[in-house]
From TrEMBL:
Ranges for region Disordered: 207-262
One Pfam family this sequence matches: 3keto-disac_hyd
Matches recorded under InterPro entries: AL/BT2_dom (IPR010496), ConA-like_dom_sf (IPR013320), PbH1 (IPR006626), Pectin_lyas_fold (IPR012334), Pectin_lyase_fold/virulence (IPR011050), Polysaccharide_Lyase_9 (IPR052052)
Bias (Low complexity) ranges: 207-243
Biased composition (Polar residues): 252-262
Keyword line: Calcium, Lyase, Metal-binding, Secreted, Signal
Top-level taxonomic group: Bacteria
Protein name: 3-keto-alpha-glucoside-1,2-lyase/3-keto-2-hydroxy-glucal hydratase domain-containing protein
Lineage: Bacteria, Bacillati, Actinomycetota, Actinomycetes, Micromonosporales
Signal peptide: 1-30
Localization terms from the record: Secreted
Length: 603
């Protein structure tokens, strides 16, 4: 399915746990309510329009650089496509919109709080370079606000409507074009619309600010587990500081970086000082060159440099113009002490986000559709000495999916491999539907061992198969690949889940070290749930379950006591609580919430 309710920026098809689902946290098992930040998103990459209901027009998924939803009948008087939940109240709906034709008297629009085919709020792109925010009640149109704005066919725009009680506002490419007070429509679904026009739509998201929408779709099962600690920090929902540099899709490098005159991300990176903030407005940034934080461009431990999404908006850095090449990364973080929050990086020619610096926090990001690993930690340059390999980076409350290279052998969700230093941590992270592995911690004899990596409270599922069903047999297809080339590195993997990956769930991958593997859950991976053929690893309180046919017995060389329940032909007693449909979400504070059959899983 291409459109489903779930949480977290920008990816696409997974069900969020509702606010009623409790996340069991900490050793004391204190309850915390899951709260959706992103309640819905759709990118149409799997070609499906399941979950959408159309009225009029000719709607289909087509290729326009990537897969998009297109309404192609320019003569249709009223073409609409709706999704979401009729009970949604306060939220922001955002979409990339490209008018293909704009007929006289026509428009292309985004809808919020739709209670039916003719009642909703609408942000409309009109002929004659006009944008209008409208209230439509039983077909009667009231213009709540308007602005002059260049509207060209064949150009992508990011439209957003925010509805919060009686406060209604609309923006184009991150810049507000109208706001008003209107309480005539209290709740409703989202929608896309054209009149006497044709258009393409993509990257539809709904983010919530106060009330978690009721889920309307389910997803392939994902176990749930309990995080053990709080994120080191969480993004502020307050307004940016007065000194912030503003970046927007229509920004110019020479602009001062104010809200009224935004600059570019590349320019802002060179200008921000230690302790300063770069605020990135929502919308799609179509980029062809790597955006680089250079070696030596550093914050400090007490005053990191920040790149943060504007509250309630989703910036998408799109590098589709790049060719597949190791030189063509998306965002390269080669400086130290940066904190990056709330962005989406997609379609880079290599890694989406490359981390070559140290002491950085990458939080609440999504990396997707990149042509190598979505997020990778490795040295910034080939001559970087091992003592300066990237260390002590924290990847937090983030998602990586549908990354795929042409040969299927290297594009993982997350990677700390080849030349990464000690102290790198992945916490509350989700990797799914990547062509190779969910996590890759590969180390090589010709570069020396990487530093020990810690993976905590994370989820890896369906790796080896993209969301559109594509499989490349060259891929390793593991959930967590923890080594390479016979080099022992003592990684730590705690309270994490491997579910239905295309090969092993957790595998030592020729790492004969002394890894600590504890409180993990592995279900229905195609070969082994746990595959450790050598080493002095320690296993405590792990659980392995099979609810489908196939697969082999677990192999766990090392120190495994009776606290584990591995699979050797039958399920242990704990497996009874791990059946049913998988769902996941991020709680408001960034904790990962996973459920199986509607039950929160505690590990």
């Amino acid at each position: 399915m291409s459109a489903q309710v779930r949480t977290r920026p920008r990816a696409r098809r997974w069900l969020a746990a509702s606010a009623a689902v409790a996340a069991v946290t900490g050793v004391a098992l204190a309850a915390q309510v899951a709260f959706a930040d992103t309640a819905f998103s759709a990118t149409f990459e799997d070609g499906s329009t399941s979950g959408w209901s159309k009225s009029g027009g000719s709607w289909s998924v087509v290729t326009d650089g990537s897969k998009v939803l297109q309404q192609s009948n320019a003569g249709s008087e009223n073409a609409r496509d709706f999704a979401g939940d009729s009970g949604w109240t306060n939220y922001t709906v955002q979409a990339a919109v490209k008018p293909l034709s704009l007929g006289s008297g026509g428009f292309v629009g985004l809808l919020a709080r739709s209670t039916g085919a003719t009642t909703f709020y609408r942000l409309a792109l009109l002929p004659g370079n006009q944008v209008q925010l409208q209230a439509v009640n039983s077909g009667s149109v009231t213009v709540l606000g308007s602005a002059s704005r260049t509207v060209s066919t064949g150009t992508w725009y990011t439209l957003a409507i925010t509805v919060n009680g009686g406060a209604i506002s609309g923006s184009v490419d991150g810049a507000q074009v109208a706001s008003a007070s209107d309480a005539s429509i209290a709740k409703g679904r989202i929608g896309l619309q054209t009149a006497y026009s044709s258009a393409s739509f993509d990257n539809v998201t709904v983010t919530t600010g106060g009330t978690t929408p009721t889920p309307t779709a389910t997803v392939s099962p994902t176990p749930s587990r309990s995080p053990s600690g709080s994120p080191s920090s969480s993004p502020s929902q307050s307004q940016p500081p007065s000194s912030a540099l503003y970046v927007a899709p229509n920004g110019s490098a020479g602009n001062p970086g104010t809200q009224a005159s935004p600059t570019t991300l590349a320019s802002a990176i060179t200008r921000v000082t230690a302790g300063g903030t770069i605020t990135v407005r929502g919308g799609t940034y179509n980029l062809s060159s790597t955006v680089t934080i250079a070696v030596g461009n550093n914050g400090t431990s007490g005053a990191p440099k920040r790149i943060t999404a504007y509250p309630g908006e989703t910036p998408v850095l799109n590098f589709a113009a790049q060719t597949e090449d190791p030189a063509n990364r998306g965002l390269a973080v080669n400086g130290n002490y940066w904190h990056i929050t709330g962005i989406v990086v997609e379609r880079a020619g290599d890694n989406g986000i490359f981390v070559g610096g140290s002491n950085n926090t990458i939080e609440r990001v999504v990396t997707r559709f990149n042509r190598d690993s979505g997020l990778q930690i490795s040295r910034a340059a080939s001559d970087t000495p091992q003592s300066q390999w990237p260390a002590n980076n924290l990847i937090l409350s983030s998602e990586s999916h549908d990354n795929a290279d042409s040969d299927g052998e290297d594009a993982d969700g997350f990677a700390a491999k080849l030349t990464s230093g000690p102290g790198n941590v992945f916490r509350y992270t989700v990797s799914h539907n990547n062509i190779d592995d969910g996590w890759d911690l590969y180390t090589k004899t010709d570069t020396g061992p990487i530093g020990a990596v810690t993976i905590q409270d994370s989820l890896s599922y369906n790796n080896g198969t993209l969301s559109n069903g594509t499989v490349n047999t060259n891929g390793d297809r593991n959930g967590y690949k923890l080594g390479g080339e016979g080099i022992g590195v003592n990684h730590v993997v705690q309270r994490s889940i491997a579910y239905r990956n295309g090969h092993h769930g957790f595998t030592y991958n020729n790492n004969p070290g002394s890894m600590a593997i504890s409180n993990n859950l592995s279900i229905d991976n195609a070969e082994r749930n746990f595959s450790f053929d050598a080493g002095t690893h320690t296993y405590r309180s792990n659980t392995s379950c099979r609810f489908s046919s196939g697969g082999s017995n677990d192999k766990t060389v090392g120190n495994a006591d009776s606290s584990n329940q591995f699979w050797t032909g039958t399920n242990g007693s704990r497996c009874a609580t791990y059946s049913g449909a998988l769902a996941w979400s991020f709680a408001a504070d960034g904790h990962l919430v996973v459920t199986l059959g509607g039950r929160a899983v505690s590990l």
